[in-house]
Write a structure and sequence with these properties.
The complex is a heterodimer of chains A (287) and B (445). Chain A is mostly helical. Chain A has helices at residues 2-12, 21-43, 46-72, 81-102, 106-125, 138-177, 183-187, 191-227, 234-256, 260-286. Chain A is flat, with a radius of gyration of 20 Å. In chain B, 58% of the residues lie in helices and 12% in strands. Chain B has helices at 20-26, 33-41, 67-82, 86-90, 98-109, 121-135, 141-161, 171-183, 198-209, 221-231, 241-247, 264-274, 305-367, 374-399, 404-418, 428-443, and strands spanning 8-14, 46-53, 57-64, 94-97, 190-194, 213-217, 234-236, 250-253, 279-283, 300-304. In chain B, the strands form 2 sheets. A 6-stranded parallel β-sheet of chain B has the order 7-6-5-8-9-10, with helices on both faces. In chain B, strands 2-3-1-4 form a 4-stranded antiparallel β-sheet, with helices on both faces. The chains are: A mainly alpha (287), B alpha/beta (445). Chain A binds chain B through residues 44-47, 172, 176-177, 179-181, 183, 185-186, 188-193, 195, 253, 256-263, and chain B through 160-161, 163, 166-167, 174, 177-178, 180-185, 274-278, 295, 298-299, 301, 303, 307, 310-311.
Chain lengths: 287, 445
């Protein structure tokens, strides 16, 4: 991909930060879908939910095309901060869309789809200086560096979706503990389903994140050897801490039956750690 | 809606006007529907008839030629069926005519007149009543229009556009909803019923219909086995209450014990053994069977009878609020229905009027066009047609007036002035066909 993308960019003079018409269309579809999901959450009619899902599908299709077009013009989806964020948003939207076809997840849509819109807007509209390019240029990354960034992006997306499910779980749990079968709860996903789905996400995300850490560690070690940049940074420690949090969650679930509220908080904590790693990485390169 | 001229008459009793002792005597068994409908349409003043017979209402809907006579005849039939004099039944009977009868049908189908507003069964029962009338040939243009184009459409809109049927209002349904929000689909879930009393039997029936597997546990094993036999449930031994609780996903407790049967200590033990699996406890006993402190434990979701009743009450209040919105939809659809019906009534008269004038013009042109060539004859015919159209423009506009009284009086005046054929209430398709025939006659083709 590196060779193809880079050579095309060289040929076509492609840029990574421009906002294309296709991007605006995808943002429009996502934004209307987000409004519809939120309307469903508040008004609780079935209509907005169905329309929201249809528009989300349109948004995902446009987003997929957008990423494809950018790649065709020489911009890899992991070559810059905005593109990586856009890829994360795409993955969250796609995973949510596919999951919502199997499960009643309209309440989660009220959180997940607005998050997707926020991520894309942040990626595409934030000032260029706040969105510094990746520390190392794509050709310099090598296969290991690209694998690390791709795996980390995928891991972040899956953990983000697990975090959305955990948030919905905590809302549902609180309402049921207060004996409220209110509109949101009545239309929400059952607690056990939310818990199971969040666990599946963590189970999928954990090996991906593990591979991201391993490839990242090797990559950094190699860069350190090659360029003398081998200092131990705080985000590496946070990444390891996050990895330990998710490992504890998985082991404790199997071993000690950690589920429900405790698992939801731990998932949120783990995702918070992941978000901190990403933020620390971007802030470091923006300063 | 005065002057809408919908010859619909409704006469009947419902839970609002008659006690069950009266309603049960008037109820018509499915096997007897054909004979009952035949009896209704045999009345001289009744053209069409349909009958809604449920546990909460018995209503006769009839398209009539003479409403007063039909009303007396139908009341007589109902009184005979109840085995009382008409005067004795009169205090329970209500009747509506014309648009008011249509409105009542719309409200019934939309579940706005039900004992529990928003209950879903009445729409199905209304459809069955209409299907029976169609099957036995007692539904004509008016009833078809009232039910198919009116009542069912309104009912669908009410269910789709309002929240009238969204949340359950019975305690057992609320309990099912709470449980579903904790454990999800009941398909692979095990429900433990602690006690074998009447309330437990009701809950068991509700959950059984949702596909749950049942286990009954009671201090007296014989009673457990009795209930288990009825609902196809397993029986657990009282000594293994802890094990049964660990295996269950939902517990329904309704014993007559004076102290909590499911103590805090027992639930803590069970919770530990469940290894994080959530447990939904539905305590419908008074005094309560589950220690209320258990609700504070993580993964334990406890709902007692007060919680369930409170929620059911809130849902009932919500339905009352939504009912106002539904009533507005009924009025909107009623207005649309009356307008459509009136337009159908005017259609044949409008066509007949046009045919009358065009026929005269054509005949006169032909009469004075002897010996002229075809081209000239066609030009004269076109001129005559054009004149007729212009002359009829204002009368036609007046006939399309939305004021029902105005339009109806004009229709009647035209019929009288030009000896036009009487107004025929026909369905849209037949109306179009009739209009086509009139046109054919007018053009002589």
């Amino acid at each position: 991909m590196r060779v193809t993308c880079e050579s095309r960019r060289a040929r076509r003079g492609g840029k990574s930060g421009g906002v294309s018409t296709l991007t605006w269309h995808e943002v429009g579809a996502y934004a209307i879908a987000a409004l519809l999901y939120m309307a469903h959450l508040v008004g609780l009619r079935r209509g907005p939910e169905y329309a929201g899902r249809a528009l989300l599908a349109v948004g995902v299709a446009l987003h997929f095309a957008d990423i494809g077009v950018r790649c065709y013009h020489g911009t890899s989806p992991i070559s810059s901060t905005p593109d990586a964020m856009s890829l994360v948003a795409f993955m969250i939207a796609a995973v949510y869309l596919l999951t919502s076809m199997r499960y009643q997840l309209a309440a989660a849509g009220g959180f997940a789809v607005p998050a997707v819109v926020a991520l894309i807007l942040l990626a595409r509209l934030a000032p260029a200086e706040a969105m510094a390019p990746a520390a190392v240029a794509l050709p310099e990354m090598g296969r290991l560096g690209q694998a690390h960034i791709l795996l980390a992006t995928l891991g972040v997306a899956v953990f983000a979706f697990a975090a959305v499910l955990a948030i919905v779980y905590l809302f549902q749990d609180r309402s049921l503990k207060r004996k409220q079968l209110d509109r949101v709860v009545a239309r929400g996903t059952p607690l056990e389903t939310l818990d199971r789905l969040a666990h599946r996400c963590v189970s999928v995300g954990f090996p991906v994140f593990t591979l991201a850490i391993v490839t990242g560690a090797i990559w950094v070690a190699r860069l350190g050897l090659l360029h003398g940049r081998g200092t131990l940074r705080p985000e590496y420690l946070i990444a390891v801490g996050t990895w330990i949090a998710f490992a504890v969650l998985i082991i404790a679930r199997v071993g000690a039956g950690w589920r429900g509220r405790r698992a939801a908080w731990l998932t949120l904590g783990g995702f918070g750690g992941t978000a901190l790693v990403v933020a620390a990485y971007f802030i470091r390169h923006a300063v | 809606m005065a002057g809408a001229n919908i010859d619909l008459l409704l006469i009947g009793v419902s839970h609002k006007t008659a006690p069950v002792a009266v309603r049960e005597r008037l109820a018509v068994e499915p096997d007897a529907v054909a004979a009952a409908l035949a009896e209704l349409t045999a009345l001289p003043a009744v053209r069409e008839a349909a009958m809604i017979s449920t546990c909460n209402r018995v209503e006769l809907y009839a398209a009539v030629d003479d409403a007063d006579r039909a009303s007396a005849d139908l009341a007589e039939i109902l009184a005979r069926r109840a085995g009382v004099a008409v005067s004795d039944l009169a205090e329970h009977l209500y009747q509506h005519r014309d648009a008011a009868a249509v409105r009542h049908l719309f409200r019934v189908a939309s579940s706005l007149d039900s004992l529990v507003i928003g209950e879903p069964q009445i729409l199905g029962q209304t459809k069955q009543a209409y299907d029976a009338a169609v099957q036995h040939g007692t539904a004509g243009a008016l009833l078809r229009s009232c039910f198919e184009e009116g009542a069912f459409r309104v009912a669908r809109r009410v269910r789709r556009e309002t929240a009238i049927a969204r949340n359950p209002v019975s305690v057992s349904s609320v309990a099912v909803d709470f449980a579903r929000q904790v454990v999800g689909d009941f398909g692979r879930k095990r429900v433990l019923i602690v006690s074998a009393g009447k309330m437990a039997a009701l809950a068991a029936r509700t959950l059984r219909t949702h596909g749950a597997s049942l286990t009954v546990i009671n201090r007296t094993r014989a009673r457990s086995e009795e209930l288990a036999k009825v609902y196809g449930a397993d029986v657990a031994d009282w000594n293994d209450l802890r094990g049964a609780l660990v295996a269950a996903d939902i517990v329904i407790a309704s014993t007559g014990a004076q102290r909590p049967v499911l103590t805090l200590e027992l639930i803590k033990e069970v919770r530990k053994a469940r290894r994080g699996r959530p447990l939904c406890l539905l305590d419908i006993a008074v005094p309560r069977d589950v220690d209320p402190e258990a609700a504070k434990l993580d993964g334990i979701y406890l709902f007692d009878i007060d919680d369930l009743q409170k929620q059911a009450g809130e849902h009932r209040a919500e339905r009352e609020e939504e009912a106002a919105e539904a009533e507005a939809l009924v009025e909107e659809e009623l207005g649309r229905f009356v307008k459509r019906w009136r337009s159908r009534q005017r259609g044949p008269v409008v066509s007949a009027l046009q045919a009358h004038f065009h026929g005269i013009a054509r005949a006169e042109v032909i009469r004075v066009s002897g010996g002229i060539d075809e081209k000239e004859r066609k030009a004269r015919l076109d001129l005559a047609e054009s004149l007729v159209k212009k002359l009829l423009h204002l009368p036609m506009t007046a006939l399309r007036d939305d004021d029902p009284d105005e339009a109806l009086s004009l229709v009647q005046a035209l019929q009288r002035l030009f000896s036009l054929s009487p107004i025929a209430a026909v369905p849209a398709s037949e109306e179009a066909q009739a209009a086509g025939n009139v046109e054919k006659k007018a053009t002589g083709s």
